[in-house]
Amino acid sequence: MKHFLPDIIFGSKKNQETKQISKQLQAGQLRKIAPKIYTPNLTDSVEEIIYRNRYFIAGHLFPGAIVSFRTAFEGDVKRGGTLFLTYRHRRKVSLPGLTIQLVLGQMATQGTQPFLETLLISGYERTLLENLQPSRQRSTIRKTVAQTEIEQRLDKLCQIRGEEELNQLRTHAKAIADSLSMEKEYVKLEQLIGAILGSRSTDILNTAQAKARAQGLPYDPERLELFMSLHALLRRTVLPIRHLLETPAILKNIAFFDAYFSNYIEGTEFEPDEAADIVFLNRPLAHRHEDSHDVIATYQLVSDPVEMRLRPDSPAAFEALLKKRHGILLAARKDKQPGKFKQIINRAGNTVFVSPELVRGTLAKGFELYRVLNEPFARAAFIMFVVSEVHPFLDGNGRLARIMMNAELISAEQCRIIIPNVFREDCLLTLRRLSRHGEAESYLKMLARAQEFISKINWTDYDKVMKMLYISNAFARHDEGVYLKIPENNSSRFNHKHWTLARPEWVPTPARGNQKKANKT
Question: Does the pTM exceed 0.90?
Answer without folding.
Answer: no
